[in-house]
């Protein structure tokens, strides 16, 4: 099995284990987790990097979303959804992930 497929499986398993969903568009990976309380928000804020860090990048990467680094946390609580994105991801890995 190729390294891209192995990484894609690892990402999928980590998402499933921690209760996250994911979507792929171009070279961007988006992960989402339903939250209802501040405790769940803080848990998601601690977890997301364990998923996004698995994805290799092939160009300048940027992460953004509803983490605690900005006003996104207010939106996360209002929408009951914690969402993070990572751009510049390996298209080989993301294509493999989209096929799982």
Can you describe what's shown?
The chain has 100 residues and is an alpha+beta fold. Helices cover 48% and strands 30% of the residues. A hairpin with a 2-residue loop joins strand 1 and strand 2. Helix 1 runs antiparallel to helix 2 and helix 1 packs across helix 4. The protein is globular, with a radius of gyration of 13 Å. The two termini are 14 Å apart.
The gist of it:
It is built from four helices and four strands. It is an alpha+beta fold and 100 residues long. Helix 1 packs across helix 4.
List the helices and strands and how they pair.
Elements: H1 3-18, E1 21-25, E2 28-34, H2 38-52, E3 57-65, H3 72-79, E4 81-89, H4 91-99
Antiparallel strand pairs: 1-2, 2-4, 3-4
Helix pairs in contact: 1-2, 1-4
């Amino acid at each position: 099995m190729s390294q891209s497929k192995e990484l894609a499986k690892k990402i999928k398993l980590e998402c499933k284990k921690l209760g996250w969903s994911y979507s792929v568009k171009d070279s961007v990976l988006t992960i989402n987790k339903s939250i209802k309380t501040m405790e769940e928000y803080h848990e998601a804020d601690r977890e997301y990097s364990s998923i996004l860090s698995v994805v290799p990048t092939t160009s300048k990467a940027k992460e953004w979303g509803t983490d605690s680094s900005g006003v996104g946390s207010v939106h996360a609580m209002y929408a009951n959804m914690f969402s993070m994105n990572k751009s510049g991801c390996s298209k080989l890995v993301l294509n493999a992930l989209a096929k799982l």
